[in-house]
């Protein structure tokens, strides 16, 4: 049993250890067009499949962890 429990930021369910890529983390960066000192970063936990499903289909093609294994 894992000591740390992860909850998916997209579906709200807990993330179990069973899948091939989970738990995943998604980072968001603010102000990418500004100087680094003005940028902020925060990471959220999620299921790989939830993140993949949230992407627009044309972008989803670029998420290819399956092909990198
Ligand atoms: Zn999820």
Short recap of the structure:
This protein is an alpha+beta fold. The chain has 3 helices and 4 strands. Bound molecules: zinc ion.
How many helices? The count is 3
Sheet of most strands = 2 strands, antiparallel
* Beta fraction: 15-25%
Rg calculated over all Cα atoms: 14 Å
Q: Which cofactors or ions or other ligands sit in this model?
A: zinc ion
Describe what this molecule looks like in 3D.
The protein has 69 residues and is α+β, with helices and mostly antiparallel strands. The chain has one domain (6-61). Helices cover 22% and strands 23% of the residues. The protein is built from three helices and four strands. The strands form two sheets. The chain has a two-stranded antiparallel sheet. Strands 3-4 form a two-stranded antiparallel ribbon. A hairpin with a 6-residue loop joins β1 (6-7) and β2 (14-15). The chain is globular, with a radius of gyration of 14 Å. The model has no long low-confidence stretch (mean pLDDT 92). Zinc ion (ZN) binds at residues 8, 10-11, 13, 46-47, 50. Zinc ion binds next to loops.
């Amino acid at each position: 049993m894992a000591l740390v429990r992860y909850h998916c930021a997209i579906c709200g369910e807990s993330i179990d250890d069973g899948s091939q890529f989970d738990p995943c983390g998604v980072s968001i960066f603010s102000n990418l067009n500004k100087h680094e000192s003005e940028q902020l970063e925060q990471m959220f936990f999620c299921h790989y499949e939830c993140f993949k499903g949230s992407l627009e289909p044309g972008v989803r093609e670029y998420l290819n962890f399956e092909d990198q294994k």
